[in-house]
Amino acid sequence: MIARHVSKIASLVFILSLVPAGAADNPLLVPGGTVKKLGGGYSFTEGPSADREGNVYFTDQPNDRIVRWDAATGKFTDWLKPAGRANGTYFDKAGNLLACADEKNELWSISPDQKVTVLVRDFGGQMLNGPNDLWIRPDGALYFTDPLYPRPYWKRSPTTQQPGERVYFLPAAGGAPIPVATDLKQPNGIIGTPDGKTLYVADIGAGKTYAYDIEPGGSLSKKRLFCELGSDGMTLDAEGNLYLTGKGVTVFNPAGKQIAHFDIPESWTANVTFGGRDRQLLFITAGPSVYGAQLRVKGAQ
């Protein structure tokens, strides 16, 4: 009898080990929490960022618009249209929304009253591949990824005019961007830690995510493999966990161990951020819809 019970327990443990993360209780969700659909009817949602009040701005790139989700009411309104075919976005300390404007492969700063300033037009006199995602470090300098995804609305050659698909650094004072990671296949998602010391970059083309030390002058050092998974967009929570997107949202702790997975009922999950007044709403952009999940942990500040 004892041997039979031990055998049953061993079999149960083996079966549970095969259950994908997220199929059981997710340790990041509030008790009883689930992923809920917040809105839909879009073509392809991307680039979510939250302002000081927790309102989330995200892009609907095929429809050339930036949409605002109100944290107090849950309502959606078009905030900017046309929007330069914006992709990834990030708010600076002054409340400007920086956007990877893919229509002309530029980097924009959009003021609260919707005035556009072009921060980066090209590199070396040639058009960029198409800025995709960005992160602003504490001193106002920023990093952005520049993979090549040919677009049907481009009036330029669909082939790259740069030596490769790279990560660039833009000093807080502006000027020309500086290549700081040139050995990646297709860099995409990017995020840094609040202390400005570590940068995560997803090489979606290679199916890997790397961590780098950030040097004061903007260069990156001590490149190391963080996990064997690429990502479209990414974010961090206050505990240092890294959220990667693609087939749902997969979460890794600071040591690079997977700790959770959020299943999303869409073919592709593009990006993710923390929003809401308490900064505990995981806001997820996925194809034609956006989703939310209330977590026990806040987003990184």
Short recap of the structure:
With 301 residues, the chain is mainly beta. The chain has a single domain (33-294), classed as Neuraminidase. The chain contains one helix and 24 strands.
Number of domains: 1
CATH class: Mainly Beta
Structure summary, number of beta strands:
24
Largest sheet: 4 strands, antiparallel
- CATH architectural name: 6 Propeller
Query: How large is the count of helical segments?
Result: 1
Query: What is the CA-based Rg, rounded?
Result: 20 Å
Adjacency order of strands in the biggest sheet: 1-24-23-22
Our estimate of the beta-strand percent is 35-45%
List segments where confidence is low: pLDDT < 50 over at least 5 consecutive residues. Answer: 1-24
Gross morphology is: globular
Q: What's the multimeric state?
A: single chain
Walkthrough of the structure:
With 301 residues, the chain is mostly beta strands. It has one domain (33-294): Neuraminidase (6 Propeller), CATH 2.120.10. The protein has one helix and 24 strands. The protein has one helix spanning 2-18; strands spanning 36-39, 45-50, 56-60, 65-69, 76-80, 86-91, 97-101, 106-110, 116-120, 134-136, 142-146, 166-170, 178-181, 187-192, 198-203, 208-214, 220-227, 234-236, 242-246, 248-252, 258-262, 271-275, 281-286, 289-294. The strands form six sheets. A four-stranded antiparallel beta sheet has the order 1-24-23-22, with no helix packed on it. A four-stranded antiparallel beta sheet has the order 2-3-4-5, with no helix packed on it.
Q: Any key phrases for this structure?
A:
single chain, 301 residues, mainly beta, Neuraminidase, four-stranded antiparallel β-sheet, 1 helix, 6% helix, disordered N terminus
